Amino acid sequence: MKKKTIVVALGRNAFGTSFPEQKKSIINAAYAIADLVEDKYKVVITHSNGPQIGMLHRAMTEFYRSDNAFTVAPMSVCGALSQGYIGYDLQNALRTVLLDRGIFKPVSTIITQVRVDTFDPAFQHPTKVIGRLMTKEEADEEILKGNYVSEESGGYRRIVATPKPIDIYEIDAIKALVEADQLVIACGGGGIPVLEQGTTLRGASAIIEKDLASEKLADMLNADILLFLTGVKKVALNYGTENEQPLDSLTAADAKKYIEEGHFPIPSMLPKIEASVDFVTKKEGRKAIIGHLNNARQCVLGLSGTVITP
Fold first, then answer.
1. How far apart are CA 253 and CA 16, in angstroms?
2. Residues 230-259: what's their mean pLDDT?
3. Residues with Cβ < 8 Å from 300, sequence gap 6 or more?
4. Mapping DSSP to helix (H, G, I), strand (E, B) and coil, where does residue 227 land?
């Protein structure tokens, strides 16, 4: 029987916010993924990098401020750095857990570039806040560079665009590894947003919504299941209120209705619902699941989580 392919999208709860916390937290993710490997799925992993890319950008900015002989690292470089070091921790944790279960399976991290459109309206209306608080003088410097800033309590923060993913440049390499039944970590943090200029790829000052990139990857791989592993057990209506209503299942039509009614929090749940709807409606036989990291196997078996169908 042909193995089914599952794209597992890990949320920020799988990593923590510091190097030691990440190394400790990532073990839970490794156990969850190892369960799916044991159950004979071909597994591709994507992941969040929210705290990590902010930390790297801030560290490189402070490095520049301490010594002007160096330059500030662009957002695309920070994205690549975050993919590398998160992948390093994750692939080593997976290797250990799998070997402890008697499973030898290579694990590879692919530094992934994702094409975005130069004319995406998101570039004119950036929304993603990154980095530390800045003074007025520092904010003015950023504006002179052509960057966007927003004022908030205590200072200013840089904001960047969140364009939609159009294409994944390393997709053929990812497919080859998946077809060889190897574990692949790709599109970390939504992938590195790049603009195509002739034969050159230029990093964009942006962050791609990781859930939309996970859907793009799952679609291009023609995966059977898109699994979002989060910090909640199920999708819920009226989340966080006394009228909270957990959902075992959700059709694409109902999901669209609930989106219009404003049921899903931004930015935590809404992108996952939108990505799930896009994925299941593009081809028959697909399903998306949103559930808790600790219940990955149960989610796939239909014993936990919320299943989204066409």
1. 34
2. 93
3. 6, 36, 39, 41, 225, 227, 289
4. strand
pTM of the model: 0.92
Distance CA 203, CA 73 (A): 11
User: What average pLDDT does this structure show over 212-232?
Assistant: 97
DSSP alpha helix (H) spans, 5-49: 19-38
pLDDT in tens, 55-111: 787 777 777 778 777 777 788 888 999 999 999 999 999 999 999 999 999 999 999
Q: Is the peptide bond before 165 cis (omega within 30 degrees of 0)?
A: no
- The rounded Cα 45 to chain-centroid distance in angstroms is 9
Three-class SS state of 292 = strand
> Token digits for 90?
């994750």
Give the span between the Cα atoms of 155 and 132, in whole angstroms.
9
pLDDT tens sequence across 3-39: 999 999 998 888 877 778 888 889 999 999 999 999 9
H/E stretch holding 251 reads strand 249-251
How many residues comprise the chain?
A: 310
| 110 Cβ neighbours under 8 A, 6+ residues apart | 170, 173, 174, 177, 184, 185, 186
Q: Compute the Cα dihedral for 257, 260, 265, 266 and give only its sign.
A: positive
Whether 238 and 245 have beta carbons less than 8 Å apart is answered as yes
Q: List the one residue out of 33, 44, 22 whose CA is nearest residue 296.
A: 33
Tokens representing residue 167 in the block: 């294409």
98: left (phi over 0), alpha (psi -120 to 50) or beta: alpha
The first and second tokens of residue 227, run together, are 């699994």
Q: What is the pLDDT of residue 139?
A: 82
Task: Determine if residue 123 is left, alpha or beta; phi over 0 gives left, psi from -120 to 50 gives alpha, anything else beta.
Answer: alpha
The DSSP bridge pattern shows strands 249-251 and 306-309 to be parallel
Token pair recorded at residue 296: 């990955």
For range 232-254, the mean pLDDT: 93
